[in-house]
Specification:
By secondary structure, this protein is α+β, with helices and mostly antiparallel strands. It contains 26 helices and 17 strands. The strands form 4 sheets. A 6-stranded mixed sheet has the order 2-1-6-3-4-5.
Length: 696
């Protein structure tokens, strides 16, 4: 079998038994997200509490996993959300080598069910599967757990583990893989509820592909002609000899004179990595410098990342100032994971160089959070903590003794140990600060008398919806298009398809001309100069989520894909949106067109939406699910909507946008799939299910 293995693993924690079953009936859902969502739909009854014994976790990968296709090392885990309203289906996506190890063990997916009688971990080494005692690991950090299991089973194993946040059943908890990669969405709580401390994976089986020669040719084509840097940014930050354009906001930060200052053996100059030089791509995305500023160059050891990824977007740093303060001085992560709770401080205490105080505090907070397995929810927990501090609410949720035992002056002076003072109480599980890690919706439910309607609707929180999900590239990114790409999900959208385009670094006119060839005139507004909703924008928004779901199912990294643009001037900067279909064809041996693969991805969206409708218990998704907070309409009050300089939205226009978006997917005016649409995608059984619940 090419690409897929044809097998899935079922592990029952209650009995300690495992079984191998066929995965072939799920191939219509591609893999990854699609396969995992379908299994949850079939096996977890609607209305199940996320932490109930009947609840399940499904880890799945795709046919592309385990090949050498660029950026194919992602894993999807599907489960019921513990932290957003309705507890509907969500996914976590994690990098590292988890995916390739699961495929190396011979499986397309693993279903985790039941509850262990005591702390346990799952071990899958090639064909050997067992549930092992983890009582000696319970209470340990994720780093300690990973080290202990690597020492026991071999340094090459992949370890996914939870820390105190998951053990103490915090909604905002995650699973850490390989000490640097996190799977969020509240997954840590589900591990904790099942008494599952960790998963150990190690497999040596090869992934068979139908046409290895074609795959290698495609890889070379993609890396030489199409790929830029992280988020498919195809323009460098500073002028280079080969580049027609430069843009200081992109993530193509590597350039002559910028070094890995702490590299073993001495600094390494990142230099130029012009298109057509795949072996130099790992120097392009200097993410530590992008996130922490120029001071990070001195502490950058190298860039690291996921299996099969040439981009290397994880900034690996060594910060000696943390010696004796944290268990180790090194850290590797990207995006908010580089500095999740540095925003708790109002000032920073520099040590050696200007700016190194913020870097040190950021890495300090990242090490703590990863060890605790505490999920930031794309900055929501930091925002909630600051909201309560800034509005004088901490005194109201704690006793005077609890409040006074915290030295609040540290926040003003920039003493980074203030972060630990807060976080260790958050992960305690019994302290009042733990309640702030429930997720915004449940925080609002518990403290609504204190918060009123302001909290969920605040620009300080920047949620995408009142279900409590954090905005992830919304109206500040392509206006209505950006916000529409969020509403498909029951957590932050994690959808980078559109921001990969708007943030590419190319001049707006070039972006617009290329994108309009695909979706029509008027689909892409100039930043902060938005126009009213139109059908081209609806098509563009649909493309955004279809490709996100495709990447999470195939799998590919949506931080880099799709290849909408190219860094090559001779291509007119045009990318190749059929590249995913070409990879699918080479891997599986079945010829796929771009349209056919998008159709398969949309099948997953239709299933996901139907599952969400069941969780909501109503077809009226427009008024119960797809509702955006008031800040989106009230921001920048002195600037009229649809004028230059604002990202403000208009309520009437948003309703129009929803209707056009629904039409693109064949949904009714309330945003619910119709029978005709579901049957078109081979989901007649889902239509019958909705009809039986009076939801069709």
């Amino acid at each position: 079998m090419n690409g897929w293995t044809g097998k899935l693993l079922r592990v029952n924690l209650t009995t300690g038994q495992s079984a191998v079953e066929s995965s072939e009936k799920y191939f219509d859902y591609i893999g990854g997200k699609g396969m995992a969502n379908r299994i949850i739909y079939e096996e977890v009854p609607n209305g199940t509490e996320p932490t109930a014994p009947e609840s399940k976790i499904v880890m799945a990968i795709g046919p592309n996993t385990g090949t050498n296709a660029p950026c194919s090392g992602r894993t999807t885990l599907a489960f019921l959300s513990p932290f957003t309203k309705y507890n509907a289906i969500v996914d976590a996506h994690v990098g590292g080598d988890t995916a390739v190890m699961l495929k190396g063990c011979g499986f397309d997916a693993m279903i985790i069910e039941g509850v262990a009688s005591g702390p346990a971990y799952i071990k899958v080494v090639d064909d050997e599967v067992s549930v092992e005692d983890a009582s000696g690991l319970w209470g340990k950090t994720t780093t300690e757990t990973t080290a202990a299991l690597c020492e026991k089973h071999g340094a090459g194993v992949n370890v996914m583990s939870i820390g105190k946040a998951g053990e103490n059943l915090l909604n905002l908890s995650c699973v850490i893989s390989g000490v640097a990669h996190s799977a969020g969405g509240g997954l840590g709580k589900l591990f904790g509820a099942k008494k599952l401390k960790a998963i150990v994976l190690y497999g040596k089986k090869a992934t068979k592909v139908a046409d290895p020669k074609r795959l290698m040719e495609l890889n070379n084509y993609i890396m030489s002609d199409l790929m830029g840097a992280n988020n498919n940014h195809v323009v460098p930050t500073v002028p280079q000899s080969w580049a027609q354009y430069s843009n200081k906001s992109t993530r193509w930060t590597g350039h002559p004179g910028l070094t890995w200052g702490a590299a073993e053996g001495g600094p390494i100059d990142t230099g130029e990595s012009a298109p057509g030089q795949p072996t130099l791509m790992g120097y392009r995305t200097q993410k530590a410098v992008f996130d922490h500023g120029p001071v990070a160059e001195k502490y950058t050891v190298k860039m690291v990342g996921c299996t099969s990824c040439p981009i290397r977007c994880y900034g690996g740093v060594n910060v000696p100032m943390l010696e004796g303060v944290t268990p180790n001085t090194t850290h590797a992560n990207t995006c908010i994971g580089n500095r999740p709770y540095v925003g708790l401080l109002k000032n920073y205490q520099d040590v050696h160089d200007e700016g190194d105080g913020k870097l040190t505090a950021g890495v300090y907070s990242a090490i703590l959070a990863d060890d605790y397995g505490l999920w930031d929810n794309y900055g929501e927990l930091n925002a909630t903590l600051n909201y309560f501090i800034n509005n004088g609410l901490m005194e109201k949720i704690m006793t005077p003794e609890q409040y006074n035992e915290i030295d609040w002056t540290k926040r003003d002076t920039g003493d980074m140990t203030f972060i630990k003072d807060i976080l260790e109480r958050v992960v305690d599980g019994k302290h009042p600060l733990s309640t702030l890690a429930q997720g915004a919706y449940y925080v609002d439910q518990q403290y609504h008398d204190l918060l009123g309607d302001d909290y969920l609707n605040s620009s300080a929180m920047t949620l995408w919806g009142l279900i409590g999900a954090k905005r992830h590239h919304g109206n500040e990114c392509a206006a209505q298009v950006g916000m529409l790409t969020n509403i498909i999900y029951n957590r932050d959208g994690m959808c980078h398809t559109i921001v990969n385009i708007t943030g590419s670094g190319l001049p707006y006119e070039i972006q617009r001309n290329i994108v309009e060839e695909h979706f029509g005139e008027g689909c892409l507004d100039k930043p902060r100069n938005y126009t009213r909703m139109n059908e081209a924008k609806a098509r563009f928004a649909k493309f955004g989520v279809v490709r996100q779901v495709l990447h999470d199912s195939f799998t590919l990294c949506n931080w880099v894909w799709p290849m909408t643009f190219s860094p090559r001037k001779e291509r007119g900067y045009k990318g190749d949106l059929s590249a995913e279909a070409k990879l699918m064809s080479a891997v599986t041996g079945t010829e796929w067109t771009e349209e056919e693969l998008d159709f398969a991805a949309e099948r997953v969206i239709q299933l996901h939406r139907a599952m969400t409708v069941k969780s909501v218990g109503s077809r009226d998704m427009r008024n119960l699910h797809d509702v955006i907070p008031e800040y989106a309409y009230n921001t920048e009050p002195d600037v009229p909507v649809f004028t230059e300089g604002t990202v403000k939205m208009e309520k009437e226009d948003w309703q129009l946008a929803l209707g056009m978006f629904y039409q693109q997917f064949g949904w009714d005016e309330q945003g619910s799939p119709t029978r005709e649409t579901l049957e078109k995608f081979g989901l007649g059984d889902v239509a019958d299910d909705l009809a039986a619940s009076n939801l069709l």
